[in-house]
Structure formats: structure tokens, C-alpha cells
Request: fold
Amino acid sequence: MAFAFPGISKLAVAVSTALALLATTPVQAKDPTVNIKVAGMFGSNFKPIGAHVNDMVANVRAATDDTVKMRFFEPGALVPVMGIFDAVSSGSVDAGFVGIGLYINKEPGLALYNAAPFTPELSQFLAWIYYGGGQQVLDEVLEKHNMKAVFCGLLAPEAGGWFNKEVNSLDDFKGLKMRIGGLGANVLEKIGVSTQALGGGDVFPALERGVIDAAEFSNPGMDESMGFDQAAKYYYFPGWQNPVSPEWLIINKAVYNKLTDKQKKAIDVACGNAVARSIAEGEVLSMQAVERLRAKGVDIRQWKPEVVQQLKDLWVEEANRLASTDPNFKKIWESQQNFRQQHDKLMQLQKLP
Amino acid sequence: MAFAFPGISKLAVAVSTALALLATTPVQAKDPTVNIKVAGMFGSNFKPIGAHVNDMVANVRAATDDTVKMRFFEPGALVPVMGIFDAVSSGSVDAGFVGIGLYINKEPGLALYNAAPFTPELSQFLAWIYYGGGQQVLDEVLEKHNMKAVFCGLLAPEAGGWFNKEVNSLDDFKGLKMRIGGLGANVLEKIGVSTQALGGGDVFPALERGVIDAAEFSNPGMDESMGFDQAAKYYYFPGWQNPVSPEWLIINKAVYNKLTDKQKKAIDVACGNAVARSIAEGEVLSMQAVERLRAKGVDIRQWKPEVVQQLKDLWVEEANRLASTDPNFKKIWESQQNFRQQHDKLMQLQKLP
Reply:
């Protein structure tokens, strides 16, 4: 490790002097009050993100001397969850806190910011968004949708899903009826899985009655709370279909433009803080859930690396197909893949046993 | 992926009503003004952390309506870097922004919070600090040192170091004279390396003149700026001696106790934000530096996994020895290792090819 010991520079003295002056100048005029109602996709009791959203809202209010009157609304209270994107776009709702990948019917490439198979791993994703062009491309894509999206937290990585038979090869997937949402379903369809994106409450009964043979749903904490261990024998990892789950605060552009730079900065800071802490809590909740499930006797399995690699190859094929049909998907996919190819070299070098 | 669609609950209505009332109540009395001079260990132009520290300071001031008058001072301006810990402890300086592992002569276990070999990987470290007991243990250990430490950013992972001959096995380390700081030096001493913790400016000339055969210094961006490629042929990875480098805002306890909960929260939030963004920028800077060094013809090498595993085994042996000689090191080491053993199981399950 190195420590730097530069002496105090002239610039530093100048900066310190300027700061000292700043500290004695009178308090500036208050920023204008802006109301921001936030339509939630996740309930405020949804772990771990619910508490982080509440905290983010409180931090924005505190940091802006309550001039940004942000208020969170439970899912469905302002607008149905499926309608949040349109409502924020039109301005009928000020803002939403969403897994932006739910709206791939509006903009297919949004999946790559939230819930796609084989996303970049965590630090690579943070690097791409904050300093690798990811946010810029998103800003461009959302221009026509009339909204700004701020990266504002993560859900824990998902598990691979619940199965009632062993799945040791791609062939073993063939013929399965499986609940799976998002673009992971496109991948499994290619290998003969009949997929259905059943809603939350419908998954357990379908799995228990054998209407479906398998179900991918969410991360271990959420899966545990759904009681899937009572309906399926094997719990598979890794969650290739959604390994990193960034969540976004989307704000109508006209509302966002009313904010001063200081108010915008307060939102960025509160969201950056939510990112760091939700990563941490998600890991702990998943770790504890897996331990409890193991203790209950769930047969926890891991796909062989070659099976996961085959799924990855199929995903890249599918993503390239999507890129060929949608210019914005292409733009996002290329930005993410280009960054990844560079950064993977560093990750490979830094890999520890 | 899953999406939750709970209806609005009675609790949610109650919370919304309470928030609405809150929004109309008059603004509370202003918090008392607290001056916090922060002694820097890294200059404000030190990438990537310098800019994040400046940003953190500005965010704390903005979020507290300038009642927390935090000011950053360049290294040496308030107190020599080696004296920051003592100065904050005694209260002669309010606060410091430090790699807390520099002060292992005061408290050996602090290395495990900043600059130890084979630290937990990034998300595991975040989880341990924020939700796995790491912060609590640190609070206990720092009690007698009369300070509070807030996790407030990270430097990029370090590289393994510069060598003038190939190092293919532990035997190849034997007899080397090497610049290496921190506890990594203890590990290399075990296998016959003669280590020296030369200061920044002394490393290049020593390496160039052959006074030393090898030098570990910092992350690729910093190493590049020191010009080591002009003095050594091989650049080795991974940086086993310091894979995660968390940085800390340490605040004298009496100063910290003057802060209201709102002011403390503003510091936590600004620091959480610095954590998320400095991770991201560190990755990008390292990636770019490695690419430039490669383009300049530096021979970039990677130790075989078995060599790194042997170093890891030696480190665990050394850490256990340190734990047997120092109760606080033991307490921290056990907390970190226990968390790691649990969380490693999840990481193994979630591993992607």
C-alpha cells in the first residue's frame, strides 16, 4: 500500500481561503419548493429496497431543507405498476421508483439497465453507469420518453430457480413448463422450455399443483417468503437470468427541470448512498435466507459451469438478435459490451483464488 | 425477475397522511453550527479519492444548510499524516480522512478495515461493514481512541507490483529486495523477501538503480503516475496484498457528539454516496491505466492461482499469529472471518463463468 504526502499547494491555500469566505457569507435565498410524488413498484415493506427508498426520500427532504417535497406512494396508490413509465412520461405522475426493465415493451434496451441475463458483475456495472458511459446512453434513450432516471439502489442478485427434477444439462431443461420473467425467458424458449410470466401470487399454487415444473422468481429472501420450498425440491444457482438488479428513480423531465442544481445534487447523493447500502443489505438477507432454507432441508444445487456458459452463449445470440431489431437496444448493448470487454481484462488480472 | 404488486395498505395511508402533515408543519429551529476541520492523508488532486472527498465535504455542508462547517485540509497542513490518528484522538484536530490501516502501530486490527492482504471482496466487505457487524466492532475498538469512523470511499484495488525478473513460484520471491508496505510485507518476509516500506518519492530511484529488485506501491493509475514502467520490466497481478481499500472519515468523539442526529445522518449519506461513486471511478481509472501501460509495452503478468493460494495460506497463518498477540485484532479478525465463511457460501453459489 502507498500513502501520498504532498505538501500544501498554493491552489490548496486558495481553495481553503475561498471556502472560509464562503462560510461567512450570508445564507442564500431558499430554493423553490418542488413537489415530487413517487409511484412505487415495490412496497415500502419490500426487503431490502423498501426501507432504502423511504430513507432516500427522507434524505432528499432533509438535504434540501424540505424544498423538495418528495413523497413515496405504495404500489397502485397513484397508478397501476405497469403504468408508471407512461404516467411519468406524460407527467400525470411526477416520478416512480422502478425496476426499469419492466417497461421493455416501451423501450426494449431498458432491460440492460435492470434485469437482463448475465449483466456485468457489480463493480463493473457501477463503473459503466457512473463513469463508463452507461448513464449518458440512458439519458439519450430516455430523452424521447421525457424523463430523467437516477440510479438509486439494487435488489440482491436473483437465484436460478426452483425445480422438481435435477437439471444437469441443457437437455434437462427441454419440455419443462417454467415460470420465468424478463429476457431470461427468451433464452429458455430457445432450448424447448415453455415459459410463462405468472404474477407473484400465482406462482406457488401453479408449482404446488404441478401446472408448472419449475419457477424462477426472485432473490433468496423473496423466494423464501413465497414458501417455494414447500412446492419444489431443488433450488438452483446461480441466478444467471438476473445477476445484478439496479433500481431507478425516474422523474418527469418538466418536474426535474424545475429543480435547482443543489436540489438535483441532493437526489444524486441520496441515491448514491442508497446504492452502497442496498448492495450490502441485499447480500446479508440472501446469505441468511439461503442458510435458513438449507437448514430446512432444501436441496440447494449449482449448475455446472458449462451449462451456465451454454446459457450465456444463447443469451449473447438473443441479445444480438434484439440489437438487430431495435436501434436503442443496439446502442445500449454495444456501450455495455464495449465497456465490459475492456474491464473484463482488469477483472481477470485481479482475480483472487 | 419478480415484481411485487401489493395494494395500498392502511399503514401506507397512515404514513402518507403523517408525511403530508409533516410537510405543512413549520420549519424546525436550525441545528447548531459545528466546525469540522478535516486533515487529509491524500491530496485533493489524488485520483480518484481526492475529488470524492471534496464532493463529500460540499455535500455535508449543503445537506446541513451549512451548519456543519466541514473543511478539508491538504496533507500536512494541519498535522503530519502520521500524526492524524493521535491528533483526532486527542481532539487537537477535529477529523481526518484516512486509510486507517496506516495506524496499525496504534491499533493493529485497523489494517483489516483498510489495507490487509486478501480482504473480503467488494460486496462482501460492504455487507460486513454496513450489515454484518463490521462497523459495530470498529466502534467498540475506537471507543478508547475517542473517535468515530465513518466508511467514506474506496481506492481502486492495488496491483501486485513491479519486478525485474519473472516470479513463477514462491521460490522465485526468495532473496528479493522489495518495497512493500503494510501487512503484505509480513507475508513476504516469511518466504525470504527482504522488505522495505520506502516512501513514495524514494521508490522509483531505488528500483531504477537496482537498490531494490521489486516494488509494490499502489493501484495501476497511481503506479503509472510514478513512472515505474521505466524502472521495471514485469507488472504482476493480482494485488493480493490489498485487494479492497476502504477509506475512512475519522471524527473526534467530542466533536461528533456535538452533532444532531440530522447532521450525523448528512455525513453518513454523503459518505455512502462517496463509497458507491469512488468504487466506480477507481475501476475505470485502473482499467485505463493498465491499457496504457500495455500499449507502452509493459509485460503484464499474472501469478498462477497456486502461487496466490500459497500467499493466502501464509497470510491466514500470519493473521492468526497477530490475533494471538492482540485482543482487538482477534475480535476484528474473527468478526470478519465468521462473516466471510457464511457469505462465501452464497458467493460460491452465485458464481458466474
User: Anything to note?
Assistant: The first helix of chain B runs from residue 10 to 24. The longest strand of chain B covers residues 147-155. The domain at 34-155+243-285 of chain B is CATH 3.40.190.170 (D-Maltodextrin-Binding Protein; domain 2). The mean pLDDT of chain B is 92.
